[in-house]
Design brief:
The protein is of the alpha/beta class. It is built from 7 helices and 5 strands; from the N terminus they run αβαβαβαββααα. The strands form 2 sheets. It has a 3-stranded parallel beta sheet. Strands 1-2 form a two-stranded parallel sheet.
Length: 160
């Protein structure tokens, strides 16, 4: 759907000057226009709807998970990606920014700026493996700490 900003992901990877593979998982009203926007780029794969297990497998194979959506309350998918070792990129002021700490356990960007996403992807690609591992491991630890009891406890204490 449009608010997930997949078109911005496609625009961002088209600006890259380094190798990439973008996998877009899911079905929806934007799929046809997104496929057209991709321009038959062999490095952009549209999987269609996948099972939860298949989605987790895709995440496990990925280095980065980026969803720069808007009007997002709390995207569990970010934590699922972090739990699989992905460096996660989310959007500021969109729910996940209470979990992702920019440049500590993931990255946060303003929405509607594919050029900034492209620059961040280049930075991640060109950074040393220690930096990437540090971010991914911090994200993994964050996801592990967010078990349902802990999330509920924090939510309740925040809303008192």
């Amino acid at each position: 759907i449009e608010r997930k900003k997949a078109a911005d992901l496609i625009a961002a990877v088209h600006m890259l000057d380094c190798p990439y593979r973008l996998t877009i998982i899911g079905e929806g009203p934007e799929k046809e226009s997104l496929m057209e926007l991709s321009g038959n780029d062999p490095n952009i794969l549209f999987t269609g709807k996948l099972s939860r297990q298949e989605t987790i497998r895709e995440m496990r194979e990925a280095d980065v998970f980026a969803m720069i959506s808007v009007l997002e309350t709390f995207g569990l998918v970010y934590l699922e990606a972090m739990a699989q070792g992905c460096i996660s990129i989310g959007t500021v002021n969109e729910g996940i920014d209470g979990i992702i700490e920019n440049e500590k356990n993931g990255f946060l960007l303003e929405p509607d700026h594919p050029d900034q996403l492209s620059e961040l992807l280049k930075k991640i690609y060109h950074s040393d493996s220690r930096f990437r591992q540090t971010i991914a491991l911090a994200g993994f630890h964050t996801a592990q700490a967010m078990v349902s009891g802990k999330v509920s406890e924090e939510y309740l204490s925040f809303n008192r």
